[in-house]
Amino acid sequence: METMRAINLSKTGSAKYDTTALVTDLTLNSSQPRPVPSSSDVLVRIHAVAITPYELTWPAPALADPRIPCHDIAGIVVSASPTSSFRAGDKVFGLKDFRTQGGMAEYALADPAHLAIIPEGLDFVQAASIPRAALTAWQALRVQRGGVLKVGMSLLVTGASGAVGRMGVQIGKKIVGEKGKVVAVGGVGTEDIGADVAFNYRKTANWVGGGEEGGVG
């Protein structure tokens, strides 16, 4: 049996979302069994992962013992099914199924439907930071309540300098197009993420009702 290095999470999850997991709940396992791909799995050599504070307190998947956290991954394909669109050597990123083991290890298995090729210009760390935030923004704008955002509409994104907010601004602008408008309110960097009008609330205290006069557009 081949082994690998992995980070194991020893904390028992609960139904409550909290951030009480400690660094001491994470341990290095130098003899974690290396995952063996099925005929449909993609085996990825992990180069970067991303984590949220809540993830460390989620209930562990039934078949995950010991548990490996971090489901936002980026890395290089080691092997894939001949019928898959991926090939060994492809640089990929994606969001693994939360019911499976995470990616804080040297290798991880992934469903090919949950992976994409990393665009040119992005490194592994940048790519790993995208999946969950982008999915959350997409679901809010185009899935929940039937997908309320349409071409030509106006969109206000608060918390625009956060991970989900940044994705919301860019996805939102793509949806509303040139006939629509995206207004972003956030902290440092809000002016640089593609909104039509941007307010840095640290600089503009009274942004409500300020129109374009107090913002960058």
From TrEMBL:
TM annotation in the entry: none
Origin: domain of life: Eukaryota
Pfam family, any one: ADH_N
PANTHER family tied to this protein: PROTEIN AST1-RELATED
InterPro entries registered for this protein in UniProt: ADH-like_N, ER, GroES-like_sf, Lipid_raft_assoc_Zn_ADH, NAD(P)-bd_dom_sf
Ranges where the Enoyl reductase (ER) domain occurs: 21-217
UniProt organism field: Lachnellula suecica
Single GO MF annotation: oxidoreductase activity
Record's protein name: Putative zinc-binding oxidoreductase
